[in-house]
Amino acid sequence: MGAVNRYRLLSAATAALAAALVVVLPAAPASAHTELKSTVPAAKSTTTKPVAEVTLTFTGLIKKPGTTIVVTGPDKTSYSAGAAEVVDKTITQKVDALPVGAITVAWRTFAADGHPMEGSFTFTNQVAPPTPQRSRARASIRPRPRPPAPPRRHRPRWARPATPRHPRVSYG
Prior knowledge:
By secondary structure, the protein is α+β, with helices and mostly antiparallel strands. The chain has two helices and eight strands, in the order αββββββββα. The chain has helices at 2-24, 136-140; strands at 36-40, 46-47, 53-58, 62-72, 85-87, 90-94, 101-111, 116-125.
C-alpha cells in the first residue's frame, strides 16, 4: 500500500504545482496591433522654428508600400515634398516651406502584420515662409525685344497667298 500512497501524493503535488504555475506566471502578452506612438511636430503643438519634415513613430514595424502622408496648410494646399520614407517603426515626410496657421497631417500606412492604419493630427505653425529674394543675376537678364514684322508689301512672292486677284467666272 505504500506505493499507492506515494503515487497519490506525487499526483497531488504535480497538480498543485501546475495550478500554482498557472496562477503565478503572468500570461504571455497578446499580440497587439501597431499604434501611433509619437509625432514631430507633436499633435496640437505650436512650432516656433521652420519645419522641414514631419515624423511619425509607431509601436511596431511599418510596411513601406501603401504608406502616404499628406501635409496641408490652412488654404488646403498640399505641402508634402516627394514620397514618405519608411525606416522600421518611423515614417518621415519632407515638406515645402509651410505657411503660418493650422497645419493638418493626414497619414495612412500598414503594420508589418498587414493591419491598415490611418489618422490625422494638427499643429500650428508660427514661422512665416521665407520671402523669395530676387537675385541680381536674374534682374540683369531681360528678354530681347522681338524685331518688328516687315511690312506686307515687302513679303516675298513665294510667301503671298495663292488666290487669284480676279476669280474667273464660268457660265456653263
